[in-house]
Amino acid sequence: MQLSRLGEYSLLLVAMLTIMVGAVLAPGLHTIAPALGFETYAPLLLTLPALGAILFAPLFGKLIDRFGARTTLLASLLGYFVFGMGGMFLHGPVIVVVDRIVLGAFAVGAMVAGTVLISQWYTGKARLNMIAKQGMAIELGGVIFLFLGGLLSELSWQAPFILYALAFVCVLLTLYSIPKKEPYPEVANSTINDDKTQPIAPVIAYAVLAMSLFYTMFTTLPGLLADLQFTESQTGYLLSYISLIAVFTAMIMPKVVGKYSENNTLILGFTSLAVAHGLFATSTATSALILAATFAGIGFGFSIPLLNHATVERSTERNRGHNLSLFGMAVFTGQFLTSFFEFVPLANTSILLLCAVVGGICVIYLKLHHRLVQSA
């Protein structure tokens, strides 16, 4: 039994929801936050879903192991739709905080369940290619939703919330195109390498760091670009350009890994993230900002999809749900850590420079401990 082409597209569409949690609000953040009564700490609207993901990822890992990935995915998508689109009708810090946290819980549920389904229906090189496509889909979602979010936020502060209805479309597609029946055991249980002796902790740690560095740009750039007289739609264009570059980078990631190894590809990713932060912190010219955005997209494409695949390859059928829930926690922990910058008495440029230093430290550490990230 093989998954149909429509089923493949459905899983890729589900992957887009990962970045959509915050992306649809990012371009219009400075008008949406006051309307929700959440003006004081506006960036938290983008990072609070990550807290929900961190808190509830272990629960969804257990639900997957008990009820199956397909059932968990459907429940997660329905919750995503209700709490995502319903956010436009809320006002006040407490209710908004609760809504964003619960939305994040369902977002990580969809993310983990979707990846488990990929690991069940694909094997070998096809699995690596599909996970690369998943990374491409996540960032293509960034291109689309950041672009649309910027345009819709200029029409009305509530308009971007309509994009959360895509989760219900995913429900219908999942019901139609993802069979209830699991693939044949030899497909569901196969892995590229059966040696699982290496720990998964290094992969999780690098995922936290990579996502922290990447997401910092989404929380700091709207304010930084506003100071440079960028409009909300122009901010959306630049942020969506980052995602577009990430799409193409994720597309070639499997070939780069095959030629240069996992470790060297990850070094390229962290180097690109460090350069991107340095350029954003020190540049005001449009051409330099575009160059910085290019490096930012390269950094994502050579890090998060690679680490996602490394997690799958280090897992067995028995612990795959658990390990992927840890990876989901890592990704959203990286997002949530960026919210603490809101409480640090530093300018956006100083925060970006600090992130550039962290990226450089990651590169040095990877060079000194190159065996830690090789696939099990």
List keywords for this structure.
single chain; 376 residues; mainly alpha; Growth Hormone, Chain: A; 15 helices; 76% helix; 0% strand
Question: Can you walk me through this structure?
Answer:
This protein has 376 residues and is an all-alpha fold. It has one domain (5-368): Up-down Bundle (Growth Hormone, Chain: A). The protein is built from 15 helices and no strands. It has helices at 5-23, 29-35, 44-67, 69-85, 93-121, 124-155, 166-177, 185-188, 201-227, 232-260, 262-282, 286-301, 304-313, 320-337, 348-368. Helix 1 (5-23) crosses helix 6, helix 9 (201-227) runs parallel beside helix 14 and helix 11 runs antiparallel to helix 15 (348-368). The longest helix has 32 residues, at 124-155.
Unreliable residue runs: 184-197
Identify the CATH class: Mainly Alpha
CATH homologous superfamily - what is it? MFS general substrate transporter like domains
Q: Kindly give the count of domains.
A: 1
Radius of gyration, in Å, reads 19 Å
The level of helicity is: over 70%
**Average pLDDT rating:** 85
> End-to-end span in angstroms?
27 Å
**Which band does the percent of strand residues land in?**
under 5%
Q: What is the name of the CATH architecture?
A: Up-down Bundle
Query: Would you tell me the structural class of the helices and strands?
Result: mainly alpha
Report the major sheet: none
Here the CATH topology equals Growth Hormone, Chain: A
Count up the helices: 15
Give the overall shape, derived from the CA principal axes: globular
